[in-house]
Specification:
Chain lengths: 188, 188
DNA sequence: TGCGCCATGTAACGCGTTACATGATTTC
DNA sequence: GAAATCATGTAACGCGTTACATGGCGCA
């Protein structure tokens, strides 16, 4: 059982999903390709942690709708409770570039930061949209421990905070490249 | 040339290092084992991007002190300028747990968050210490584009901000697990 | 006496990526 | 007419991890 297995179980604990859907949803916090997910789902099914139902569709390919089993929930709970989490792993090529940013001309540095800012803004909007959708739910509200979305809400809050923080950092760093005076763009 | 190659070149652009030292320093922003780094350094040397000098030591094993070459700097600059950075990759098992936190008893959730908080505080202190060291430099100051440490300073600032942000997020989330009334610990 | 630090390497293995394969429907 | 979306799989490859190998010095 690799970590990705538990990521899949987590998603299925919220609601039944197809492998295709899991691949998309996982992107937010655990990037993996479908070529890795499909075989893993088959393995989880053999182990009895998930089951699937074949759903015939018209106009779209048929799909397998996976659900978590009681054994799956128990396995997941045990992992969450007892397994010490591995150190976080991060691979961000932008940070490599930052480390050697002093080698570049100021205008190149500014360009890289501004491009980063743009990408961050796009992601921020998407995350804020999804959080808003969750917050509109009322019964029960997402801030409630009992909500199906509770964990997902916490995670998205974390995501959006990190993105906002990075935008602030970019805005803090940009004036240090004084190639020319130029006003900062607005965050919203 | 994989991303790690450029990470190594970045480090060597700041100052000559041994493979052993690179392995340690890289942990902050690009985790890799020495078993991957040593062969890569040999490859970079064959390509002419780095050179090394054998340093005999007493009481410690000899070491190879690697330095970046002009060709290495040029290669690095070109990569920073022209290569679009790959999407950031993050693998944090704690986030998986958060997603399914609603399956756990509130006291277990609280325990997980408090343990996380402790680990974050430790890292925060280490990062703040290193930043302080850099800020004590005066000639030129690290906030100066011309400083050898400039890029490293930007990176550490980013790191420390992310950690502070996560602590704030933990403190925001903790009261949502109302298993019992308990005051928040102080950040400092 | 044993563990951790310094220091560099090689070997085996497997997780994870990229590429191959298929095909209907919707959108530009 | 081309490209994207939905949907599931397999095959090849290689990056990255874990483990093996060596050895002196300092510390508890």
């Amino acid at each position: 059982m690799i970590a990705l297995s538990y990521a899949l179980l987590c998603m299925l604990a919220r609601k039944p999903c197809s492998g295709y859907e899991l691949t998309k949803l996982l992107q937010v916090f655990w990037q993996a390709q479908h070529s890795q997910i499909y075989p893993l789902l088959a393995k989880l099914e053999k182990a009895g942690y998930v089951t699937f139902e074949l759903i015939g569709q018209t106009g779209k390919p048929d799909k397998k709708l996976y659900s978590i089993t009681d054994a799956g929930v128990a396995e997941l709970q045990q992992w969450i409770r007892d397994q010490p989490a591995a150190e976080k792993l991060e691979r961000d090529e932008f940070l490599i570039k930052i480390y050697a940013i002093g080698l570049m001309e100021p205008q190149t540095s500014r360009r890289l930061f501004l491009e980063r800012r743009e990408a961050l803004l796009t992601r921020l909007r998407r995350l804020e949209g999804e959080i808003k959708l969750m917050e509109e739910e009322q019964d029960p509200p997402v801030t409630d421990y009992a909500s199906r979305q509770f964990g997902r809400y916490l995670l998205y809050q974390r995501r959006v905070r990190v993105v906002r923080e990075e935008i602030d950092w970019v805005d803090w760093a940009l004036p240090l490249f004084k190639s020319s005076a130029s006003a900062l763009p607005e965050r919203n």
